[in-house]
Amino acid sequence: MILTVGCGQAPETGAPSGSSASAEALQKEIASLKKKLADARSRIDSLRAQLNGAGASAVDGGLSAEEIIDELMNVKLTSKNRRAAERRVQFLFESLIQQGDAAVPHVRAFLNKMEDVEFTVQRSDEEEEGRGRGRGRGNDWAERLRGRARGSSLDFEKPPSLRIGLMDVLKEVDGSSAEAALGEVLSKTARGFEVAYVAKTIRSMIGPDAFRDEAVAAAHELLSDPIEVPNPNNFDRNSQRYLFSVLEMYNDQTFIQSAQGLLVREDGKIDGTVLDYLDDVGKEQAMDAIYQAFNGGQVTDRGDLSSLARAGLKYTGSNPQANQMFKDIMSSDEYDMRVKWSALREMDDAEDDTTLQVRLNLMQGLQASGDDATDKVVEMYTRQMEAKISGEEFDMRKEMQSLGTDFWRNTFGRGESGDRGSRGNNRGEDRRNQPTIVPAP
């Protein structure tokens, strides 16, 4: 845990005050800063005592910033020394924070080297061999899960690496020089998660639009022309997700057209990270990208088609492409009942009566499909829409139950009846769009 210490310049106490109230406020601020400093010193003393008790050597109070960073560069965590080593790392980072602005040039110089050290446990060959047998497999599986979780987060109890720890130091030191050092990372790093971490950090220091142009430009560049990082870790493997999170932080819509080219992967699957960006940030401006991906023929996975439908059909009633998407889904045998279900469920998700009426008109204008299951579900949702517009009650669960368990099993179950209209076998393997309500017998 990084200790928060006020390291800015103390206000001048000799200047004449405008009023007794402002003088009193000034004294309170000075007292608060003194308390923070005392707490920080107490924390350092406590950590020093812990380190001595654990058999680790105490840091001389005169240790320079360069010496601290050099020691951090050579930290090696093993299963035996992990606890003591982690305390040592924490102590060293807090020692840097205590140096305030004097530490910033050294931190800045190291960050510009583009070197890093991961604070992960290094195991011996014997330990690695043991991890491959018996209980070790469970531990390894659990660690992989933890690794995947760490690989998509920007919140850490302890810095996962030296560079992240030094960025935290700059945040705690604060001030213009620390902010400038963080800004340099945005222009130089090739790692997406560092761009995201710096953006999150600098926004918490200055404000929501801090370094917007620099962060967005870095995200655009690395998304358009990714740089392969040697020996990538979980953070690097999730680089694209982090970069799109930067665009979401700043609500940047200038990447929508470029994102359209990234939406469908080479294997025909939808990139969920890109779709989330288009859906959450692009909104209706992204409708064309979603519509083209849906109708392009390259996407055949049932779950992906349903995801595209949910993202696009929320604009039905106000957007011509969304209206056409709904008509295409409901009138074509190319889309099975799961995709049609996704489309119908979006129709009553609106509070504006005008939009609801347009959607109802679209549903009432559908011709009978000749498929009994489809026509019954369309009729059920049409009645629900009519009731919502007129302000009447409509018990959807009761209506679903009245159709019987066999109806729903045949409509959404596996096998030929559940796969009608499938473009490919992979649809039968993806059940993400099954109904959220399971009717009782």
Question: Which assembly state applies to the chains in this document?
Answer: single chain
Q: What value does the Rg take, in angstroms?
A: 29 Å
Helix content: 55-70%
Structural class: mainly alpha
- What is the tally of helical segments? 22
| Uncertain parts | 1-17, 52-60, 130-151, 414-441
Mean pLDDT: 79
Give the biggest beta sheet.
Answer: none
Strand fraction equals: under 5%
State the order of secondary-structure elements, H for helix, E for strand.
HHHHHHHHHHHHHHHHHHHHHH
Number of strands: 0
Per the principal axes of the C-alpha atoms, what is the gross shape?
Answer: elongated
How far is the first residue's CA from the last residue's CA? 54 Å
Descriptive account of the structure:
It is a single chain. This protein has 441 residues and is mainly α. The protein has a domain at 29-128 and 146-206. It has helices spanning 20-53, 65-73, 82-99, 104-112, 125-131, 135-150, 162-173, 176-188, 192-205, 212-224, 234-237, 239-249, 256-263, 272-282, 287-295, 302-313, 320-331, 337-347, 353-364, 372-390, 396-402, 405-412.
Which structural traits does this protein have?
disordered N terminus; disordered C terminus; single chain; 441 residues; mainly alpha; 0% strand
How are the SSEs ordered, and which strands pair?
Blueprint: H1 20-53, H2 65-73, H3 82-99, H4 104-112, H5 125-131, H6 135-150, H7 162-173, H8 176-188, H9 192-205, H10 212-224, H11 234-237, H12 239-249, H13 256-263, H14 272-282, H15 287-295, H16 302-313, H17 320-331, H18 337-347, H19 353-364, H20 372-390, H21 396-402, H22 405-412
Helix pairs in contact: 1-3, 2-3, 3-7, 4-7, 4-8, 7-8, 7-9, 8-9, 9-10, 9-12, 10-12, 12-14, 13-14, 15-16, 16-18, 18-20, 19-20
